[in-house]
Write a structure and sequence with these properties.
heterodimer, A: 275 residues, mainly alpha, MetI-like fold, 15 helices, 0% strand, B: 303 residues, two-stranded antiparallel sheet
């Protein structure tokens, strides 16, 4: 009797969860199918639940806009910040975890304090800095602040703390200099952290709409996210083209996420450890 | 002769050597960190005491801050922001605990599929999420009105985003879908880390599901809950893109947030000093919540 009641409860809950998941998937279904709907089909009522007459016209119009260029800009910014973050964060994280140097507490304190503050509040002065250095409206105006954000250092420091000091001492006794120790011994050990941080930085830069919005202006410099937002402002209800843009912007990132879901989940939990 | 040593118990010569290496390793990161985080933060604080616009830069002391207290649009945005936080934090926490407890002990395939579904809105990015919701909410071409009218929930098409009463709830709904991904990931790993022998022992003793949850699971995931509350609070405080893309703060500032109002002041009205004063207030509030997090969450916590 009790067993029976339990399993009914479980089944009801699972059905509820499935329904909620469908609600979560629906917007993505709507983006993808919308991308293949002609304008008059996109706004017709009752709606077409599936594009009966699929068209590539939206993508053609999108690439005139120039979404290809936007896509390339997004890739460039995300890859550059990813590479720079990996290099700088790993080096800094390693010494913060494994060395005892003068001023260490101050450096780490600054990093933690900066992480506690919302990064958006520095945007107004950042625009000013980019203006005076002539970097405004260039990809670097997005890349450099992304590299400055110390989350990666924090994550790397956490991970480097798990390296046994004996290994590092042994290397030193064998005559390995600091740089060689870092490259040959530390780097292979912290590979999982590199993986998590790489995906994390790539996705964060790709999706940092606010930073892109205040830094980029001319049409050819936009990112795919910013470009789609611009199209939405210009075209209002031309939903087909806008969905095509949204699909194009989401596609690479969803692919990366699905391929590396495991690293990503571990990255989130790693970053959460020891706030 | 005895070598002079410092607090780390190493000689000064060795310490100098360590310092030099450490600084070299830190240098690349510090250049970016100082140049693009610390310096702008200092500039933001400094210029918040100035009447700083395109054409002027005059020291006015705390007058930007006192203006904030009298600015009804700012106070409106301030209230809206707190409302967003007050609604989204408990709903996000409860919903993610519910989802996570249903899926954490299923087969890895099931767990990661559901986790992926709920994480999807975070990954695809705000812009993609917002443009499709804008379409769904559209008064004439939106599927929401079609479904609701046919189900008899509403009588005629509603202007969801243009109505003062509904617009903020649309924002809350979308913010919710983009906020639960990370908490679910965290809860799944927290629940999976609970010692299963304790759970089994409780079941053998005849403890019901309800009691097992409140007496064993709930206390064990408490640190995660605290963390989730803090990150959701901080994220909701910073809500910007949703507002800018969906409602532009309207109608009549009913959906404006601190971050959105800051943006309009800086980039439409070019009142940089005033915007930076707002930023400092926001930083103070968020800093307070982060401080709570550091205080509550013990440094040896592990997921």
């Amino acid at each position: 009797m009790i067993e029976n009641k339990k399993s009914i409860y479980k089944t009801v809950m699972m059905i509820l969860l499935l329904l909620v998941s469908l609600l979560f998937i629906f917007p993505f279904y709507w983006i993808i199918t919308g991308a293949f709907k002609m304008q008059k089909v996109a706004i017709q009522m009752p709606p077409q639940w599936f594009p009966l007459d699929p068209t590539w016209a939206n993508f053609t119009e999108l690439f005139i806009n120039p979404a290809g260029k936007w896509f390339f800009n997004s890739v460039f910014m995300s890859v550059m910040s990813m590479v720079l973050v990996l290099i700088t964060a790993a080096m800094a994280g390693y010494v913060l975890a494994k060395k005892q140097f003068t001023g260490q507490a101050i450096v780490f304190g600054l990093i933690v304090a900066a992480m506690a503050l919302p990064k958006q509040v520095v945007l107004v002065p950042l625009v000013r800095i980019m203006n005076s250095t002539g970097l405004y409206n260039s990809a670097w105006a997005v890349i450099l602040p992304a590299v400055g954000w110390p989350f990666g250092v924090f994550l790397m420091k956490q991970y480097c703390q798990t390296i046994p000091s004996e290994i590092l001492d042994a290397a030193r006794i064998d005559g390995s200099n600091e740089w060689m120790t870092f490259v040959r011994i530390v780097t292979p050990i912290i590979k999982p952290a590199y993986g998590a941080l790489a995906i994390f930085t790539f996705i964060a830069t790709w999706n940092d709409y606010f930073l892109q919005l205040v830094m980029l202006q001319s049409r050819s410099k936009l990112t795919i996210a910013l470009g789609v937002a611009t199209l939405q402002a210009e075209m209002a209800t031309n939903y087909g083209v806008i969905m095509a843009g949204a699909a194009l912007g989401a596609l690479p990132i969803v692919t990366i996420f699905l391929l590396f879901q495991k690293n990503f989940a571990s990255g989130i939990t790693m970053g959460a450890v020891k706030g | 002769m005895r070598l002079k040593t410092n607090k780390y118990g190493v000689s000064h010569a060795v310490q100098r050597q360590t310092d030099r290496t450490s600084y070299l390793f830190l240098l690349p990161m510090m250049l970016f960190f100082l140049g693009f985080v610390i310096v702008p933060m200092g500039m933001g604080l400094f210029t918040s005491f100035f009447n700083y616009t395109m054409s002027s830069f005059d020291f006015i002391g705390l007058r930007n801050y006192s203006e904030l207290l009298r600015d009804t649009k700012f106070l409106r945005s301030f209230r809206n922001t707190f409302f967003l936080v007050a609604v989204s934090v408990p709903t996000v926490a409860i919903f993610s605990i519910w989802v996570s407890s249903l899926i954490y002990d299923k087969s890895p395939w099931v767990t990661s599929t559901f986790r992926g579904i709920f994480y999807l809105p975070v990954v695809t990015g705000t812009v993609a999420v917002v443009v499709v919701w804008k379409w769904i909410f559209d008064k004439y071409a939106g599927i929401l009105n079609y479904v609701f009218v046919n189900m008899g929930v509403i009588e005629k098409n509603m202007d969801w985003l243009g109505d003062k009463k509904t617009a903020i709830w649309c924002i809350i709904a979308i913010l919710f879908t983009t906020s639960i991904g990370q908490p679910i990931v965290l809860y799944i790993s927290a629940l999976a880390n609970i010692d299963s022998s304790i759970l089994e022992a409780a079941e053998v003793d005849g403890a019901g599901k309800f009691r097992v949850f409140w007496q064993i699971k709930w206390p064990s995931i408490m640190p995660t809950t605290l963390y989730v509350v803090v990150i959701t609070t901080i994220n909701s405080f910073q809500c910007f893109a949703l507002i800018q893309l969906l409602t532009s703060g309207g109608p009549v500032y009913s959906t404006s947030t601190i971050m959105y109002y800051l943006y309009t002041n800086a980039f439409s009205l070019f009142r940089y000093g005033y915007a930076n004063a707002m930023g400092m207030v926001l930083a103070l509030i968020i800093g307070f919540f982060s401080f709570l997090q550091f205080k509550f969450i013990k440094s040896d916590m592990d997921y």
